[in-house]
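Per-record layout

source: Corynebacterium phoceense
name: Cardiolipin synthase
length: 485
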Amino acid sequence: MSLNIDLSMWQFVLLIVDYTIKILAVGFVPEGRRPSSSTAWLLAILLLPYIGLPLFLLMGSPYINRRRHRIQKEANEMIEDVHAGMPDHPHDELPTEIESLLRLNRRLTGFPAVHGHNAGIHADYEEAIAAMARAVDRAEKYVYVEIYIQSWDTVTAPFYEALERAATRGVEVKLLLDQIGSHKYKGYRKLGKKLTNAGIDWHLTLPISLIRGRFRRPDLRNHRKFMVVDGEVGFLGSLNMIQRQYRTKDRAWVDYMTELTGPIVASLSAIFAVDWYLESDDIIEPQLPPHRDTSAEDTNYLQLIPSGPGYTTEPNLRMFNSVIHHAKHRLVMVSPYFVPDESMMDAITTACYRDVDVELYVSAAADQFMVNHAQSSYYQALLEAGVRIFQFPYPFVLHSKFLVADPGHPNPLCMFGSSNMDMRSFGLNYETTLLVAQGNLIDQFAQLSANYRAVCHELTLDEWNKRGFGRRYVDNVMRLTSALQ
């Protein structure tokens, strides 16, 4: 009898706790979040409160990582002060609409548009690594490397050996890599020792180190991929420093790195300085590059768009949407992970209804199960609106990330860098993207997309409508999980 009373009491207590969690969640979870994100978190908490609530507190709360948010805010203010005397852009006569976009990003990030010189897009995987190694071998003062995934393997060895040679001759070499991004690849446990033995000053970004009392949200990533040499040469793109097969046996990643010189490199140096301070508490002062001829054919007008949890106004997403709305004739989107939020989806379909020719380039099969199904859940609406979807053939993973608006027409624009076109890159990842307001990079990225199109399969609406019920169900379930932030 006593046992039955005790069980009933515990059931009553658990029932009260269960309903208390659900009632509080309904009132607090939606605050400051998009409807899709709120709905996903509420669904998790209401269905599985004892699992959903801890996950929400761990990954959904905006009150974690206060130190990082504080430092990022201070860094943004410092960047604004440094650039206070500079105009929004270095060109006297830009179209009003483009000037408006440059002012938008200047207000959100503090970075003005500056000159940059295009030294080439390295679209061959191993040649891109070799080009970065050559730049390191020319270094005289310092080399800053910030790349999401890193692995010292047979393909990347020439790059790390170049870093070692640079350190040996007295060049300051600093390197950042993401802990969660890199830890699952072969050789990670020995990587730190190898870097130290090579004379490289390195740190993990967003590390989980409970022994040192440091905690991070496990869903956050430093997804940036760039390098700075002497404040004069910069590399930025989609490539991780790892062999192109990653951990697979038969797949191969397709990537690029863009080589740049000129004042834009100083913007990259500033981002590295902030991230380095976050992980090491050491202050570095990047040097401004020398002035170069701005009338050269390789001159581009570039603006850095940094983004991440410290940027509460989502400059990355706002700029993508602004460029999509800017397109009048043609829009080319290339992304390995395409999971748009409502605003981007509306912008894309609206472009179609404005008679813009919209092209989306994705892999035939993404390398991540959940993302593959989440992104394909949008194909029906995209195809019905008129988007042409081009699938890069298996076993390749189209990992390049860029967007081109109106190539070959007046006032074209381009965006490229580390950011995918998904909600993770817009809200959870630290990213670096460049906006090209004018210059030959726009045509070169348009040509790169044409090269991809030559080997792609175009997915049609008739073909997509033949998919089975099981595929539709899994796609829609994975779509729900994509909104968790």
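summary: The chain has three domains: 2-60, 66-307, 315-426+436-481. The longest strand covers residues 429-438.
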